[in-house]
Amino acid sequence: MAALQFVRQTLPDVPFIFVSGTIGEDAAIDALTQGATDYVMKSRLARLIPAITRALTEADNIQQRKLAEQALIESNDQFRAIADSAVAGIIFSDNTGKVVYCNQAIVGTFGFSREEIIGHSVITIMPDSIKALYEARAIPTHKSELSFHTGRTFESIGKKKNGQVFPVEVSLSSWEGQGGLFFAAFIMDISERKKGEENLRLLNAAAEAAANGIVITDKEGIITWVNPAFTELTGYKAEDVLGQNPRLLRSGVQKDAFYAELWATISAGKRWHGELINKRADGTLYNEEMTIAPVLNTNGETDHFVAIKQNIDARKQQEYEREVIFSVTTALRAALTRSESIKAFLQQLETYFNADGVLYVFHDPNSNETWIEQGVGPIGMQVIGSRIPAGEGISHMVLQSGKAYTCDDVNTDPNSLGAETLHDSKAAACLPLFSHDQVIGAIWVKRPQPITDTEMRLLTTLCSLAVDSIQRVTLFEKTQRQYKQMASIHQVGQAISSILNLKIILDILLHNAVSQLGVDAASILLYEPISGTLSFSAGTGFKTDEIAKTRLKLGEGRAGLAAAERKVITACDLTQSKDTFSRVILFQKEELISHHVAPLIDKGEVRGVLEVFSRNRLIPSEEWLELFGILATQAAIAIDNLTLYDELQKRNNELSFAYDATIKGWSVAMDMRDHYSEGHTQRVVDASIRLAQSLGVSGTDLVNIRRGALLHDIGKFSVPDSILQKPDKLSPEENKILQKHPLLAYEMLRSINYLKNAIDIPYCHHEKWDGSGYPRGLKGEEIPLAARIFSVVNIWDALTNDRPYRKALNNEDAIKEMQAEAGKTFDPIILDAFLSNKLYEQEE
Predict the structure, then answer these.
(1) pLDDT for 298-352, tens place per residue?
(2) What's the CA gap between 799 and 815, in Å, rounded?
(3) Segment (H or E) for 284
(4) Kind and range of the H or E element at 536?
(5) 226 phi and psi angles, rounded to 5 deg
(6) Contact 707, 663 (CB under 8 A)
(7) CATH of 210-311, one of 3.30.1490.190, 3.30.450.20, 3.20.20.140, 3.40.630.30
(8) Distance (Å, whole) CA 285 – CA 263
(9) Angle at 338 between CA 333 and CA 344, to 5 degrees
(10) Residue 173's pLDDT band (boundaries 50, 70, 90)?
């Protein structure tokens, strides 16, 4: 036994056979237990060779098995190292579903430890829904099912230790080994992939459903994908454009430089955004807003381009309409008159609608006439002023219905008139113009190309804007016109009240009539009741003097008819008149087209007529006729007032002459009482007027000075001749009587209104500057100016003419004596004016 133990310790792999003659059964079993290979009894040595052979074979097998086991161990270590480094989870299970192996990825993916997985059923990592399916379906255990499982990959659901379920991809294989059928599963967590696939699905669905066209090209610009919106936008189907270059959409509007800049931008890895005009498959053009972005691969290199395309025709149309509306409203705001507003509007339509002619048709509700008031464009200018017969033509159809009209060839419309058919401009639109629900006119737009529905909508909007603006300017013009008319009426009224010359008043009235009524000429014919005729009195605006020859009987011509029938007579178009009376020559020479006449009536009497003439056709409105009537009334009032004034003036003059003659008679009577004072009154009157004028006195003040000078001694009528003609000095008693004559003059004249303003000289001519005079002792400027002037003249005349009590002085002595009284008897300023201007010499 010791030898057996030694061999086993030193040579464990060498076979050991016991050969013994006496070994018992127990000893043999013990030897085998301690590592002996076999035993042979000496009595049976024949078994030794086979035992040796068998022992060597077994030893060799053991050696081979050990080598295989060592290789397997080494192989398993390599497998585990590789498996644990794998991204995918690896799990082995037997035919009962028990896990015999799992790698580290399984642990990381599911959150279980190896101990919680190995030796346990695979349902550990399955959600309940999969468990039920797994348990309901037997695991295959025979070779017929092996081919079904081997190499199969499918998607399933896994469950983590925390209960979270997630999608997995499983690759399943099986093999048959010792102990039966085994399974190997390679499991990948495909949560991120599923998210990516979902995102990709959503993106694809979004791209397919997108309203904007989407195009994907390779880096060379070849189309690889388009969405349905691209087909709707361009008319090209996907199969028509795949493999093509997007240049097939080019319209030719953009130049090559535009596309070169675009390509340079995206080739540099930058995004390009802009607008362009492209062409559809059917050849029509459309406006497009496009964004092109490069698509980068994992290396950061561009390998595709994505283009987003949007049809912006509607937006461009809106932008265009806003531009047009802004331009039209700006032009209308700049216009100051109705005519300017209409013309500006027509010019805007001509520009923005590429029209050959744009017309403004005006309907006058007063005359019920319709005509083309304004036109622009080469065609529109040809028909300005054309009349449209009542109820005829497309214009009247539009005016009556209030509905717009459009036609691609108006020349073929049987309802059109000559002015409405314009040769090459076949297409036409006629739109009504509404103001407060009333149709006031229409707009024609004519051009060779058809007018689209979109353009008609824009035209309708513009017409609405234009009407508002035109009506606003019209109202402003009317307000200004009425203001001017009021000012004109006021001016004429002032003239009537302040000017006493009929010719001047009528000239003012006629000039205002021409200005405010918008006519070319006007005249007034006055009625002569004795002869029963109308004769020219005043006129303006005529080229010849033919109007001055006018002399008409009542009822003759329009002027005579207006006076006879006492009503306004109008003739809007004399070219249609068949007048044969003498004034036809006037109308021909003056080239007059319209003639309107109003009678001049005041206090029930016809005073004449007011005539106005126009060299163009003039259809009067109610406002015009009202103003015409007012001017005629003013003219009648002016004629009546001045006729009355002339009569009163004549009577006043006659009365004034009578008063002056009476006054002069009184002064002559005074001179006749005293032969020494003969001529005295006339001399002092003339000298007083001259002195007063030199001091700036004028007008009625001079008249009152003259009358006062004539009456200065009127109070002496009560003084006895014995005192007036006494050659010696008067006694104090006589002086007292004489000095009463100013008071007597005052009492005589104060009750006569006609002479009350002339009373200053008779009453105050004996007052003195220093207050020593009589009758009231007035001093300085208390004395009326007229009396101070007369005092100087009166005393000068007394000094230089013979008196009963002394002889006349020469001028030198008289000047010295009067200068001595300056500031005493006389106002020194007035005395200086008399002497320095030598007014006494003029008297002589």
Answers:
(1) 888 999 999 999 999 999 999 999 999 999 999 999 998 889 999 999 999 999 9
(2) 9
(3) none
(4) strand 533-540
(5) -140, 155
(6) yes
(7) 3.30.450.20
(8) 22
(9) 55
(10) confident
Q: Where are the domains of the chain?
A: 2-63, 86-194, 210-311, 317-472, 499-637, 674-843
Q: Assess whether the region 86-194 and the region 210-311 belong to the same CATH fold.
A: yes
Contact status, residue 809 vs residue 696, Cβ threshold 8 Å: no
Domain spanning 674-843, CATH class: mainly alpha
pLDDT above 80 (res 712): yes
Quickly name the fold that domain 86-194 has: Beta-Lactamase (3.30.450)
Mean pLDDT, residues 91-95: 86
d(CA 131, CA 672): 166
Strands, E, within 636-716: which ranges?
none
Q: What are phi and psi of 336, to 5 degrees?
A: -105, -15
Q: When comparing pLDDT for 793 and 842, which is higher?
A: 793
Average pLDDT over residues 515-525: 92
CATH of 317-472, one of 3.40.50.2020, 3.30.450.40, 1.10.1200.10, 3.30.70.120: 3.30.450.40
Q: Environment class of residue 628 by beta-carbon count within 10 Å: exposed (0-12), middle (13-18) or buried (19+)?
A: buried
Go through 493-517 and write b for each residue having 16 or more CB atoms within 10 A of its CB, e for each that does not: eebbeeeeebeebbbbbbbbbbebb
Question: What is the SS3 assignment for 654?
Answer: helix
Count how many Cα atoms sit within 13 Å of the Cα of residue 650 in the half-sphere of its side chain: 6
DSSP 8-class letter at 450: P
According to DSSP, the residues that pair with 571 across neighbouring strands are 595
- Within 8 A by CB and 6+ apart from 250, the residues are 259, 278, 279
Percent of the chain predicted with pLDDT > 90: 38
531, pLDDT greater than 60: yes
95: tokens are 């035919």
With 80 as the cut, is the pLDDT of residue 61 above it? no
Angle, CA of 100, 104 and 108, to the nearest 5°? 115
Contact, 732 vs 705, CB < 8 A?
no
User: Which CATH architecture describes the domain 499-637?
Assistant: 2-Layer Sandwich (3.30)
pLDDT in tens, 134-164: 665 544 443 444 344 566 788 889 999 999 9
Which of 278-282, 491-495, 641-645 is predicted most confidently?
Answer: 278-282
What are the start-end ranges of the H helices in 521-621? 557-565, 584-590
Q: Which helix (H) or strand (E) holds 46?
A: none
Residue 296 is encoded by which pair of tokens? 């980068």
pTM beyond 0.70: no
One-letter amino acid identity for 81?
A
Look at residue 518 and tell me whether its pLDDT is greater than 60: yes
- Whether domain 2-63 has CATH 3.30.70.380: no
Please name every residue paired with 172 in a beta bridge, in sequence order, or none if there are none: 152, 185
Res. 509 pLDDT band, cuts 50 70 90: confident
More confidently predicted of 639 and 360: 360
Distance, in Å, from the CA atom of 37 to the CA atom of 59, rounded to the nearest integer, reads: 9
Cβ within 8 Å of residue 8, ≥6 positions away: 16, 34, 35
Identify the three-state secondary structure at position 15.
coil
Q: Which residues of 361-373 are buried (b: 16+ CB within 10 A; e: fewer)?
A: bbbeeeeebbbbb
Q: Over range 42-58, report the average pLDDT.
A: 72
Q: 384-398, 411-425, 593-607 — which is least confidently predicted?
A: 411-425
Cβ atoms of residues 613 and 588 within 8 Å: no
Are 92 and 106 within 8 A, CB to CB? no
| Contact (CB, 8 A) for 760 and 787 | yes
Give residue-wise pLDDT tens across range 539-549. Answer: 999 999 999 99
314's enclosing H/E stretch is: helix 313-334
3-class DSSP assignment, residue 89: strand
**Residues 6+ positions from 459 with CB-CB distance below 8 Å:** 349, 353, 404, 429, 431, 443, 445, 451
